Input
Amino acid sequence: MTSAIEARLKTLGVTLPQPAAPAANYVPYVESRGMLYISGQIPVGAEGIQYVGKVGAGLDIDDGRVAARLCAINILAQARAALGDLDRVGRIVKLVGFVNSAPDFNDQPKVVNGASDFMVEVFGDKGRHARSAVGVSALPFGVAVEVEAVIEIA
Output
């Protein structure tokens, strides 16, 4: 039987990938006291790492938004690995988005909307969350965006 969230993803044309293994000395998620903490996810797709570069210098807001959405897809892949079933998500509590930004770029919230909008598309009101959108000078592998999540377990 397909879960309601898996059915919703299918309707959106999204297939969750195999979750990525950690690139260093950390775990991809931690479950503690009814919460699930997902380590930062980068825009890795079927072709590998995507959206390399700085937003505002080579990549535009739309590129960044798509990269952030891909990060959110990878967050859900990690959540499914942790929980077994995405219907166990009680709420997306918080997202923190890091944007590899050109020095004069200040539209990080518009970029991270790619992840936020996706969570609301998938979970409806349970996808509405607190958030930070931070500009940084560099990210691992030179990617444009990294997003981490805190999720309440139902």
